[in-house]
Amino acid sequence: MAPDKQSVDRLIEILLQKGTVFVGRAAIVLVVFTLAWVVAGWAQRGVVRSFERTQVDATLVRFLASAARYTLLLLALISCLSAFGITATSFAAVLGAAGIAVGLAFQGTLSNFAAGLMLLIFRPFKVGDSIRVGAYTGIVKALELFSTVLATGDNRRVVLPNSTLSNQPLENVTYYPTRRAEVLLPFPMRASAEKVLPLLAERARALPDVHAEPAPEAKIVDFQNLRMNVLLGAWCDTENHASVLADLSLAGKRVLDEMRERPLLTAKSARGDAPPK
Fold this sequence. Notes:
The chain is α+β, with helices and mostly antiparallel strands. Among the domains are: about 60 residues, SH3 type barrels (Roll); about 90 residues, Alpha-Beta Plaits. It is built from nine helices and eight strands. The protein has a five-stranded antiparallel β-sheet. Strands 6-8-7 form a three-stranded antiparallel β-sheet. The longest helix has about 45 residues.
């Protein structure tokens, strides 16, 4: 039996009323969530600014700022759901009933969050440290709730999940204030070790950023392809490590050049043989 015109008109009227209410609520929710997004950003920046002149570590400040932002967004989401008749109690009940499913679906995100808390508690690094994780090396720019941001030496931005940092070896390159710089220098077998090794150590001691104690040292580590490989090492401040490496390499190159010009650095002259013409 076909519906009469009055029933169809009544159905259309109800649909229009419900649709108008839904569209109105959706518009309000969109506006509210947009404002919440903006306010959450202000709150995040406000937390950072409020701790700028304090002694609180930058890593903790950025973590608290991220936590404040996501907390406001979560509260806004719950408020927006209440506009459609989903109360906070109902929302919690749904989450409780679907806890296992949600946990399995978001196990990666939750593991990143838990790893972020562990990184914050045990503090293997802080913002500004240079770290090496897997194939990535860079300066820590931010430790967030779910990820850590690095800036590489060639100024690339790398975002690593926090679980990645907690599940594999992590090297903090700048953790200690001093480091040992080492370069491997290949010398020909005819070079006199009694002359070359003390000369290399002397040149290393003369470098401006090298520490006097522990004293620089040069030693033969192996012999390969008719060459003796000499390891030249010196201690320096961590911030000067790269420049000291370059200086040690240059010092070794200069000794090699002098060896070609000064027969006193050759094994023949050490035995008292006449220098080659």
